[in-house]
TrEMBL record:
Bias (Basic and acidic residues): 278-288
The name this protein goes by in its record: ABC transporter ATP-binding protein
Stretch list, region Disordered: 243-288
Amino acid composition bias (Low complexity), ranges on this chain: 249-277
Organism name: Roseateles aquatilis
Molecular function terms from GO: ATP binding; ATP hydrolysis activity
Signal peptide feature range: none
UniProt keyword annotations, A-Z: ATP-binding, Cell membrane, Membrane, Nucleotide-binding, Transport
Keyword Membrane applies: yes
Pfam family, one: ABC_tran
Residue ranges constituting the ABC transporter domain according to the UniProt record: 7-236
Entry superkingdom: Bacteria
């Protein structure tokens, strides 16, 4: 399997007004890899996902999806992505099957009801629920529809924002198994989360963000929960960035804040306008 990144941030700087919310972020997620992005409130996790979706434009650097610059070609980037926001928004008066068919049709993927049911079953949605209106679905059930949409669209990559918040342990475990299945199918998966347990359960790599900078990166295997918690808490407070490789921490070179970001913001004004429109649409209804 190729190790070329499907999802990549290269020296990515995002500004919101006069604030730098991502400060020279570098990260890469190849096919068949789950990357968990941890960090305190306001660290920049959702902003990273929004940059890859082209909802916010880079002031400098790049957010790339399968080589497509999401700031410049947001629709192209999104075509390659599946996105599951914290609460997957579906049409409440349509059934699970109808939602799946509808969202796939938007992506020009036609699904008959039988194929839709097969995908929903594979995503773990009980057969008896598939024909019911999603108004009565739990968060976990809506996520399963979102995962089925991702599978149907054959997305190369998936972005997950706080996927396990509010899920009971059994539902969180079921979700983890679905993520691992998508990973095994070769998807590149970037997950923003506060759930250290879930991160250890599914991730290959874990990155810790602080004030828009990656302050630590470590392989998830062989890291115990209490060790990750210790590293996380230390970096939530520490200033010195570090990278952990197979249990050995090495320094991450600090990335300079782009002094030229304000100037380049003008150059990306068109992309920002496009992203703002997309963001407004996304707020209205977020399609997975
Ligand atoms: N639409 C916006 N306009 C202005 N600033 C924003 C906007 N969205 C996010 N920010 C700012 O960007 C920074 C990063 O926010 P972001 O939502 O990416 O953090 P996060 O790590 O996802 O936090 P949380 O864990 O609370 O969801 C914060 O300082 C936040 O206030």
């Amino acid at each position: 399997m190729s190790t070329a990144p499907i999802l990549e941030a290269r020296r990515l700087v995002i500004r919101r007004g006069d604030r730098v919310t991502l400060d020279g972020l570098d990260l890469a997620v190849p096919a068949g890899c789950v990357y968990a992005l941890l960090g305190g409130n306001g660290a920049g996790k959702t902003t990273t996902l929004n940059a890859l979706l082209g909802f916010v434009a880079a002031a400098s650097g790049q957010a790339l999806v399968d080589g497509v610059d999401a700031s410049r070609q947001p629709m192209e980037a999104r075509r390659r992505l599946a996105y599951l926001p914290e609460n997957v928004a579906l049409y409440p008066y349509l059934s699970g099957v109808e939602n799946l068919q509808y969202f796939c049709a938007l992506s020009e993927v036609r699904l008959d009801a039988e194929r839709a049911r097969g995908l929903l079953t594979a995503a773990g949605l009980a057969v008896e629920a598939q024909g019911r209106r999603v108004a009565g679905y739990s968060k976990g059930m809506r996520q399963k529809v979102g995962l089925a949409i991702a599978q149907a669209r054959q997305a190369r990559a998936m972005l997950l924002d706080e996927p396990t918040s509010g899920l009971d342990p059994a539902a969180a475990n079921e979700f983890a198994q679905s993520v691992l299945a998508a990973r095994a199918a070769g998807m590149a998966i970037l997950m923003a989360t506060h759930d250290l347990f879930n991160a250890l359960q599914v991730a290959d790599r874990i990155g810790i963000l602080r004030e828009g900078r990656l302050v630590a990166e470590l392989p998830a295997r062989d890291v115990a929960h209490d060790e990750l918690e210790r590293i996380y808490l230390r970096h939530a407070r520490d200033v010195a960035p570090s990278r952990v490789h197979a249990g050995t921490e090495t320094e991450i070179a600090p990335t300079p804040t782009s002094a030229a970001a304000t100037a380049t913001a003008t150059a990306t004004a068109t992309a920002t306008a496009t992203a703002a429109e997309a963001e407004a649409k996304a707020t209205e209804r977020t399609s997975p």
